[in-house]
Amino acid sequence: MEVFTRSLQTIYNVFPIRVGGVSINFFPKLEDIKSVSNAPICTCLTPFPRVGIKVSFWEPIAVIEPTAIPWCSPSLGASIPAGGPGGESYGANGQRAVSHLKTYQAHFIKYPVFALIEYLADFICLDGGSGMDIGYITELDPLWQNDIWAAIIGPEAYLVANPVAQTACMADSVASAAGFPIDPLWWCLGSWGSAFPMTQNVKDAVSPMETQAAISARLLMKLHRQMMLWGSIGEAGLCQSFPMPIMRKSQYGIFPVYPSLGWPFRIPIGRSGLVWDRGIDNTANMHVGAWMVYRKRDCCAF
Q1: Helix, coil or strand: residue 196
Q2: For the chain, what percentages of helix, strand and coil (3-state, to nearest 5) are there?
């Protein structure tokens, strides 16, 4: 439970909060994106007709556990002796003598912080559900284990597997270092590498923490592609969530809560670890981590 305790300690990352076009931010280093117009009033017809006030904030929705050891869960504080397609993936790439390539499984644990602490529990803008739940486990997913099989849900990987497309990711890296990533470059993860293939195989980044961040971002993209996560940003998201099979990267920020708290603010997807990863990882950790996920939420509240 240490992971969840640390997650609660980072609740300040919900800022900035915008209410009727007015920004409230007690932490100037917490960045924000402008996703809706400045008009304070909004109207909705779904799920029922209403007139309300535009509200925007960064909602903590889940914890992602990237782990090089299959079935190891720092949130549960245990390693579960289970099988599945990815149950034996630890060290697989080392056996194939593939240089600078790591294999990671990942777990998506739904963690609606506001509902759990009964804060703003009746607020219409919050994500549905009131309790923790294991939303996704990649050890049970055959597509996560194989780059070729992953093309079933991500065939565009073949379109961007070329030097021209990957060179364009340099612009995404620069943008994420200074602010938020470039959403039209959907195949890039800034300084963390490529978003494809959406599998366990990831090249070593500058640091182990960047590699974990890349796996976390890939899992978010995969869940969007499988329609398990939806869009919640912009004018289209004011009234209700909407299908977003190609994830808008700027909608998310992540924050490492295990093995230790380091950089105190949520991190846009793709931001270089040279800025934020000092003192977070350690060699005894065996490449197992946990990351809090913040999703930008725009809502027509009443």
Answers
A1: coil
A2: 30, 25, 45
Q: Give, in order, the Cα–Cα distances in Å from 146 to each of 82, 84, 121.
A: 19, 14, 41
pTM of the model: 0.91
Say if residues 44 and 80 touch (Cβ distance below 8 Å): no
What ranges do the domains of the chain cover? 2-301
Question: How many whole angstroms separate alpha carbon 3 and alpha carbon 259?
Answer: 8
Mean confidence (pLDDT) of the chain:
86
Q: Which helix (H) or strand (E) holds 82?
A: none
Residues 169, 11: Cα–Cα separation, whole Å: 31
Tokens of 205: 């980044």
- Hey, how many other C-beta atoms are within 10 angstroms of the C-beta on 50? 15
Tens of pLDDT along 41-83? Answer: 999 987 788 899 999 999 999 999 999 889 999 888 877 777 7
Distance CA 300, CA 50 (A): 9
- Three-state DSSP state, 12: helix
Dihedral of CA atoms 27, 177, 2, 83 in degrees, nearest 10, equals 150
